[in-house]
Write a structure and sequence with these properties.
The complex is a heterodimer of chains A (434) and B (76). Chain A is α/β, with parallel strands linked by helices. Chain A has helices at 30-38, 114-117, 128-131, 165-184, 246-250, 263-267, 270-278, 298-314, 329-343, and strands at 2-9, 12-15, 20-22, 25-28, 47-51, 57-60, 62-66, 69-73, 93-99, 101-108, 134-136, 151-158, 194-199, 208-216, 231-232, 242-244, 254-255, 284-293, 319-323, 347-352, 374-377, 392-395. A three-stranded mixed beta sheet of chain B has the order 1-2-3, with helices on one face.
């Protein structure tokens, strides 16, 4: 089990007359790329915009962020199983990626009624942008979501009337994937400037570890067959734990446009990448187990936690990093997994965001168990500084773009913001900075 | 009344009655209309009963437990 990952850094992205990567610069032929999007009649009103780090720009109501990747050798297709792509197992051979660059898709729903907007449809009247997800490309909080430091090709889709929410989002996600494929193809015949090899063959004498991201399923919101929301090989259903090779994650097996995550965050996951780099030296990184959450009966949550612990035991895992993606009842599922694993003798560290402490009066976690021995905090999601006003607004969910451009007050912890949910520890509040 | 009793119990709620599911705490739409109503009545009746039951620590009431003697469980 070995994956070579070739990196093509994008130090700058510019508009040009052809689409190519050359010496760290990604040139984009917008006309060609736009045609690729508008193949789909539902996307005839869409547009592409380029945003760069340091620019006075705000991108709002984004749904997913995708890093262009392509398989150069080895079986399968990156980001497998979604939008008609092959479900063949990935994770071996060679994959190329564009780093420092991503396709960000935004759904402009400003002309649609609340019921037409479907999901995410929650809005706060006073400071809408504090609830919806957004990225500032400059200012004191630009580095908070990792996307502020990337060159972003933004696909802004004006939702077609008459289509269902599911149809709109399917069209948008599929177009994002077409863009990602086209841009990653610019690297096909070039030797990568940087290459990293992940050979995860187990070595004797090292403890076996697993990474267990808990990822909410959208099955309850959408139809069970829909790949909308977070999926594994295109399967978004609530189901038994998925056991993946870590390199399958690096090839995009987890596709997540869900409530808290993005596809970019899984292929650039710091837990996966760092555990891969520790493999063979400190640990054997045996598996990444995706635990689906949103079971709505406590007995089901308990059953899934028990099955996870049993699966890890069967795989001879001694230690696991457990993460959670959405708070509330999904956190209960993560904490039950901690308990079940510890009871089976699997040592666990929980990497999690904290609840807003409400000035020290509230507990940091919704619920805890005595078995929780080790936890790493990824912060509360609060920002110390307000968000400066910007000169340019991309995306948009409000009827007047101008209202997206003003100053936004500092964000007070979680629950009340979806600005950026730091699930895996990218942020300056993460373990790295302590 | 909660579909996820471990949450209110962990913050020290005195009386917690187990409901069915997060999206329908006091009923079960998978059942027939009559059975659904009966489940709802049983949960609510248990809740009212629990208010008349003295407790000295967080206590879980199980309206749908197969064994009626397990209707109230003390949580240590």
């Amino acid at each position: 089990m070995s994956l070579e990952l070739g990196t093509f850094p994008v130090n700058d992205a510019v508009l040009g007359t052809q689409t190519r990567w050359h010496g760290g610069v990604l040139e984009l032929d917008l006309e060609e790329l736009q045609a690729l999007v508008r193949e789909d009649p539902l996307l005839k009103d869409s547009r592409l915009e380029l945003a760069k780090p340091g620019e006075s720009a705000r991108i709002s109501s984004y749904e997913d962020v995708v890093e262009p990747r392509v398989k150069v050798s080895g079986p399968g297709t990156v980001y497998p199983g979604v939008w008609g792509r092959s479900s063949e197992k990935v994770g071996t051979g060679r994959t190329h990626r564009l780093s420092g660059f991503a396709v960000m898709e935004c759904l402009d729903m400003s002309h649609l009624s609340n019921t037409e907007q479907l999901w995410p449809s929650l809005k706060m009247n006073e400071h809408p942008a504090a609830w919806e997800r957004f990225v500032d490309m400059s200012g004191p909080n630009a580095e908070r979501p990792p996307f502020g430091g990337l060159n972003l090709l933004c696909l802004v889709v004006r939702a077609a009337e008459g289509a269902t929410g599911e149809e709109r989002r399917s069209s948008m996600h599929a177009a994002t994937m077409r863009l990602s494929d086209r841009l990653a193809a610019t690297t096909l015949d070039i030797d990568p400037p940087e290459m990293e090899t992940f050979d995860l063959t187990p070595r004797s004498g090292l403890p076996n570890i697993a990474f267990v991201p808990h990822l909410a399923s959208s099955e309850w919101t959408f139809g069970s067959r829909s790949p909308l929301g977070t999926s594994v090989y295109g399967m978004s259903r609530l189901n038994y734990p998925w056991m993946l090779d870590p390199t399958e994650v690096l090839d995009g097996a987890i596709y997540t446009g869900g409530a808290a995550g993005t596809t970019w965050m899984m292929v650039n996951n710091p837990v996966v990448l760092n555990a891969c780099r520790m493999h063979g030296r400190d640990v054997n990184f045996k598996t990444c187990v995706v635990q689906r959450t949103n079971w709505t009966k406590e007995a089901e949550k308990q059953l899934m936690a028990d099955r996870l612990a049993h699966a890890l035991k069967m795989a001879d895992i001694q230690g696991a990093v457990i993460t959670n993606d959405v708070r509330g009842q999904r956190f209960l599922e993560a904490i039950l997994s901690v308990q079940a694993c510890e009871r089976e003798g699997v040592k666990v560290v929980l990497l999690t965001e904290e609840e807003d402490s409400e000035s020290g009066t509230a507990p940091p976690l919704l619920v805890s168990v005595p078995e929780l021995k080790a936890a790493v905090s990824a912060g509360t999601g609060a920002t110390l500084h307000p968000f400066d006003g910007v000169q340019r607004s991309i995306g948009g969910f409000d009827t007047t773009q101008e209202s997206n451009m003003g100053e936004i007050p500092a964000i007070h912890g979680r629950y009340g913001t979806s600005h950026f949910n730091d699930i895996f520890g990218y942020d300056t509040q993460s373990y790295d900075s302590y | 009344m909660s579909a996820l009793p471990s949450v209110p119990l962990s913050v020290g709620a005195n009386r917690v009655v187990r409901g069915v599911r997060v999206e329908h705490v006091c009923g079960d739409p998978l059942l027939s209309e009559e059975q659904d109503a009966a489940v709802g009545m049983r949960i609510v009746a248990t809740a009212i009963q629990s208010l008349q039951t003295p407790v000295d620590k967080p206590t879980l009431f199980e309206p749908l437990a197969a064994d009626a003697s397990k209707e109230a469980t003390h949580v240590s």
